[in-house]
Design goal:
Facilitated trehalose transporter Tret1-like isoform X3; single chain; MFS_Trehalose_Transporter; mainly alpha; transmembrane transporter activity; Growth Hormone, Chain: A
């Protein structure tokens, strides 16, 4: 049942791209509320399993249609030095939603909880009624007057650059210049279509990022991160602890929420590779502890029945500093400008497919490995494999310009022995409202 939501997201995300490009980012979020409300209402009123599954599919469509334009909207209206922090907040809200759902599931009947979920769909749609549309999209559609009003609303508290020019006016000029650059770039590829895309993915800058990300997604999904997230109650019950599984699932969600907030700071201060190494090693240690203790509990050789749950909590802490958030964040950094959009879509689809397989085969894997303890040891081994894989192939992108990352893939595939240049470049850059995250003017396309 948990995997039903995942399998519908890739195709729904493609449709959301068409909707937001043609109707606007905020309108796409509003439209997303329709299948969401219908889906949760069907679940609340369902009299059989097929209706529940169909409702879940509608909720998945709503999730894809609402999430993608939300991310694009934030990216387009936020200042460059705030984008990474705002993007890191997204997992925090996911964790908060899970905690609220766990709490609701503990106290409420599942039908009542389904009705309550409609509130979290309707409220964002109402908020979108008072927000202004993305200035970038408005300029793209030739709605220049609305774009000016939107920029004035977004930057109304921003100090003016000087007495003659407001920050909103300067941003409007920059957006117009960037839009013209994109139009000029698009003219170069008119008529190339699918053939051009295939050619780009045949280059080292196309296939290398895709291969590396696919491997990273494999280790991420089969390390147990999302299995413990979606099947937390079943996972804890099979460990035979003396802690209420519903209470434990709430604790797991709360820990993930707190650590997601902390990761907003952590991801801005520490290198990607260092975080991945620390994350996977600690995850392996705590999952090995959980697996060993689960076996001892089953054999009756220990009375410390709470250890697997505590180990799982620390496993969650370790995952949130590296292996959980970083892989999906790397998608936008790895691909060159020419195929960044389609590269993101393909990579995210692969991520969702692997997550679907991991969730769908959870009980099969448990039977194959002979129970929860061996499965937990398997997850620990996968974490070790993820650490080794990242050490060999994952490039360091912290503080690097996107063009430098593209240049790396032209000649490199195995990272071992590569000289890390410019890692601390961002830390030594003087911030300016018109500078991007790497110290470059926003007037220059950060390719």
């Amino acid at each position: 049942m948990a995997s039903v939501l995942i399998v519908i997201i890739p195709p729904a995300s493609i449709v959301s791209g068409l909707i937001m490009d043609n109707l606007g980012r905020l309108n796409c979020i509003k439209i997303a509320g329709i299948p969401g409300v219908i889906g949760w209402s069907m679940i609340a009123l369902a009299q059989n399993v097929p209706i529940i599954i169909f409702g879940r599919l509608l909720v998945g469509i709503s999730s894809a249609w609402g999430t993608s334009p939300g991310i694009v909207y934030i990216t387009e209206i936020a200042s460059s030095n705030l984008r990474m922090s705002l993007m890191a907040i997204a997992p925090t809200y996911v964790s908060l939603g899970m905690v609220l759902t766990y709490l609701g599931g503990w106290y409420l009947h599942w039908r009542h909880l389904a009705w309550i979920c409609n509130i979290f769909i309707i409220v964002p749609c109402l908020v979108c009624m008072v927000l202004h549309e993305s200035p970038s999209w408005l300029i793209l559609k030739g709605k220049y007057d609305q774009a000016k009003k939107s920029l004035e609303w977004i930057h109304k508290y921003q100090k003016p650059v000087d007495e003659q020019v407001s920050f909103a006016e300067l941003q409007y000029k920059v957006l117009q210049e960037e839009q013209q650059k994109k139009k000029d770039e698009a003219k170069k590829h008119v008529g190339k279509g699918l053939k051009f895309i295939i050619q780009q993915f045949g280059k080292p800058t196309g296939w290398k990022p895709l291969v590396i990300l696919t491997g990273l997604f494999f280790f991420q999904n089969f390390s147990g991160i999302y299995i413990t997230m979606f099947y937390s109650i079943s996972f804890i019950e099979e460990a035979h602890t003396n802690i209420n599984p519903y209470l434990a699932s709430i604790l797991i969600g709360a820990v993930r929420l707190v650590m997601s907030i902390a990761s907003i700071y952590i991801l801005k201060k520490f290198r990607r590779r260092s975080l991945i190494f620390a994350s996977t090693i600690l995850m392996a240690i705590f999952m090995f502890i959980a697996g060993t203790w689960t076996r001892w509990i089953k054999e009756g050789t220990t009375e410390l029945l709470w250890v697997p749950v505590i180990a799982l909590l620390f496993y969650v802490v370790a995952s949130t500093i590296g292996l959980l958030p970083i892989p999906t964040m790397l998608i936008a950094e790895f691909f060159p400008l020419e195929i960044r959009g389609i590269g993101y879509s393909i990579s995210y689809s692969i991520f969702c497919i692997l997550m679907f397989i991991a969730l769908q085969t959870y009980y099969t894997m448990s039977d194959f490995f002979g129970g929860a303890s061996n499965l937990q040891l398997f997850f620990g081994a996968i974490c070790v494999g993820g650490c080794i894989y990242s050490y060999c192939f994952l490039p360091e992108t912290f503080g690097m310009k996107l063009i430098d990352i593209t240049d790396y893939f032209k000649t490199k595939f195995i990272y071992i022995g590569h000289s890390e240049k410019g890692i601390n470049q961002e830390e030594n850059t003087v911030r300016d409202p018109m500078l991007d995250g790497n110290g470059n003017s926003d007037k220059r396309e950060n390719v």
